[in-house]
């Protein structure tokens, strides 16, 4: 099999159910999800395979689910096949957020992204995830989408924030609070 097809040379690409321009809002949405997936893979490379085995397993599952998100976003009409991203996947992200958040100390203020390479890259994942979510919001204004993808990305960015803090905490690196921030977070109950 050849990697190149030459079918995109005129500025269009194939999606599930047809062809669209390469700068179509749909392509921007699933392309940003693909970009996010690459950063997730990079973050995984910076985690400790023994200490962070749980994080690595969860992030690997997220990589598969990001492909599911991209697949759903590339679908022109839902009647072509069932959606892959489900409400249960969003619920599971919330469970993971709670689990990893319980590991970290309380915060009162916004924190600066940084720390070790894993944490820093997970913060990049958070911001790229937010951009992907914005692209999906734009797409949804004009075309039907799987609403669970938007919910999934919204929750996923929260998970990236939490696991970035977890990666630093496990490496004994404290969060650095944004010095000019008011107290914006409530204590964990």
From TrEMBL:
It comes from the Bacteria. InterPro entries: CblAdoTrfase-like, PduO-typ. GO terms for biological process: cobalamin biosynthetic process. It catalyses: 2 cob(II)yrinate a,c diamide + reduced [electron-transfer flavoprotein] + 2 ATP = 2 adenosylcob(III)yrinate a,c-diamide + 2 triphosphate + oxidized [electron-transfer flavoprotein] + 3 H(+); 2 cob(II)alamin + reduced [electron-transfer flavoprotein] + 2 ATP = 2 adenosylcob(III)alamin + 2 triphosphate + oxidized [electron-transfer flavoprotein] + 3 H(+). Homotrimer. Belongs to the Cob(I)alamin adenosyltransferase family. This is Corrinoid adenosyltransferase. It comes from Paenibacillus solanacearum. The lineage of its organism: Bacteria, Bacillati, Bacillota, Bacilli, Bacillales.
